[in-house]
Predict the structure of AAEL012761-PA.
Amino acid sequence: MLIPLLTLFVCLLILVVVIINFVNTVQAKYGFAKNLPTVTRADESIVKLLWRLVRASDVDKFNRVVEAFSLPYRLWKVWLGPVVCLGVCHPDLVQIVLTHPDCLEKPFIYRFIRINRGLLVAEAELWKRHRKVLNSAFNLRILHGFIPIFEKCCSRMVSDLKQMKDGETFDVMRFTARCTLEMVFETSLGTGCLPPSESDCLIRHIKRFFNIASSRFLNVHLHYEPIFRLTQRSKKETESLHYCNTVVKQLLTEKRQNVTKTPETPDDEFGKPRIFVDQLLRLGNSFSETDIIHNVFTMIIAGNDTSGQLMAYACLFLGMYPHIQEKVHAEIVEIIPRHHNEPISPEKLKSLAYTEMFLNECLRLCPTAPNIVRQNMAPITLDETRIPAGNLLAISLFAYHRRKDIWGPDADEFDPDRFSAERSAGRHPFAFLPFSGGSRNCIGWRYAMISMKLMLVYLLREFKIKTDIRHQDMAFRFNAALVLAGKH
């Protein structure tokens, strides 16, 4: 009897020593944050917070995050299990984080998206090499050369919409997402669009694996790969990734054959715009097969979740505010009439000043990526708090774009005029971050703005948009992208 008791005592002693050592390690690692405010509720322990997050609906999770970032703190902390995450809320601090050379790293949660070698989630050193090479693919001259392709895709979208019955209610995202996918295929892969049924299927699989990745962010137990592999989500993720990989690999195989048959000539740089994947394939050893696939995936996801989704929100706001729709429509038909037979020039697009203000207001209230998280690779200082390397720094663009000290007492209201030159004067340069900020901003932001302006031109020259959804009734689900909850 004595030996079992002694064994039990030794085991308990070892367990106590391990726990004490773990607590001391955590306190030593995160002691720098002890004086920062904590945003958990007064009656909520770390264990209770994590349990609530596991049980909470995606809408509740989204609201909890926004609630935390809406508190009157410049910098705060929250515990996610044994890890502390710092919330960065003031423009001065946001600017430091997004422009600091030691804050280019994206933390481990982004790896859940499974395109680890694409620009969206690549580790800092790989991102630097790839971004330097790929910047030329998004220069303004090349993007302007894509306008005829964008117009062709917009024209097909209008034709599809004309098949709907007048006054019929439907989800416009189905059409805007298909249109932006066609744009990405033609400008990034140089291939024609997929049949509508295949396009819709690809979009569904992309959304599914993206949603599964997002579901792991706040579910700490799913951060651990062995646990995640036991879930049904893992099986569904594998199915969707396999489908997407098969489609992209098939397209790349066809494209590679065409590239080898048509060698690059000195005139290419100044002739017709080079397709994105052509440059990747011609770079040879600079980009591996996985690099190419992941960057193509990144373009498809960005096209669908940036241009396609924002256009759906833009249509929603146009339907909510008929007087604003009238102003956007009036500007469009004055500058680019319905029977305008010539290709739309970059100059005419640039002249759509109120239309751009409208799109900016859509991006302010509905940023395509509602949250940004960075990890500092070396110690940095924020508000006299020295933060050791390896910590998580989070920014909620959804809450940040609603700060009343930046945007005024009507920050929650939809008003494109807040982007007029007069009202924008003196605004902090990092107050508005529709495509993130600093050197690791979205490489395709100008691509997105040009394509979205053209989609608005084609839509409003043909249709009047209505909706029964009210602005105050909009609710969102927690996701890496901004996703509206409920039927819409």
